[in-house]
Amino acid sequence: MSVFNEPHFTDENAARDWFEALRWPEGPVCPHCGSLRSYRKAKPGVLRCGEKECRKDFTVTTKSVMESSHIPLHKWAQAFHLIASSKKGFSAHQLHRTLKITYRSAWFMAHRLREAMRAGGLAPMGGSGKIVELDETFIGRQAGQPKRKGGWGHKNAVFALVQRAGSVRTFHVDGITTAQLGPIIRANINRESGIMTDEGTWYREPGQEYASHETVVHSRKEYVRYEGERTIHTNTVEGYFSIFKRGMKGVYQHCAEKHLHRYLAEYDFRYNTRTALGYNDTDRAALAAKGAAGKRLTYRLPHEARL
Q1: What is the mean pLDDT of residues 90-103?
Q2: Residue 65: pLDDT above 80?
Q3: How far apart are CA 59 and CA 288, in angstroms?
Q4: Is the pLDDT of residue 307 over 60?
Q5: Domains of the chain: which residue ranges?
Q6: Mean local confidence (pLDDT), 272-285
Q7: Fewer CB atoms inside 10 Å of the end CB: C or N, the chain?
Q8: Quick one: which of 285, 283, 293 has its CA closest to 20?
Q9: Cβ(84)–Cβ(285) under 8 Å?
Q10: Is the whole model's pTM more than 0.85, yes or no?
Q11: What distance lies between CA 281 and its chain's CA centroid?
């Protein structure tokens, strides 16, 4: 039996019930004023706020990434499942072919799915006895930069923090100097953590503020070192980058610089809800759908886009 035989993937009313249960587990809440008082109108899915000062109509898509979309809710449910269960990504062209919607609608949907996956306001990573690995990579080409055969100065820089056996956070950064990476490190990693990096000089100064700072020297082909019971490496963060780059090059193939942060949010979300941490595809899709509330995007697909 296919997972898509579930009612919320095929029936519009069941899909609405699924989204409502995720967004309002304790009952409907007016997205305009926050009131718990509301009643259903005759039109399916439409509620009206019960507060005299408000009295506005709303649905489960109001003030969410799905607002103003004409795509049926059961197809939104399918899309959440598809992108949440695809380790290396699910392109807009694949959505277009699978869901039988236009490419423009699929592009619209894909970016809103990524926005739903975006996390924010997180507490510092690590802690006493925890190890956080740091590394940077380069991908694509910065807007306005000519194509070059070598070097990375023309590419987009991505900085990642990965807690071993835990979560990842990535950032699209302007560069990899101490001044650019130091504030990110200090704001996102608990000072009681141990950090592990390569030999990059930009890690030396912030590394002094943590419980320990160990490095591996890649220029000497050192990728792992054993010191007693400790294993010193950055293989965890490099493993994350391998998934990210294979997806970006093999599935998406091209990403405009202005959209890179949304693709990073997508890969972060799936890594942070991976099977090793106790999640499955159904859990992932539900968490992504819950993240749809309170977020909206207003831009549209430009005619020349080829994403």
Answers
A1: 96
A2: yes
A3: 18
A4: no
A5: 3-120, 131-278
A6: 97
A7: N
A8: 293
A9: yes
A10: yes
A11: 15
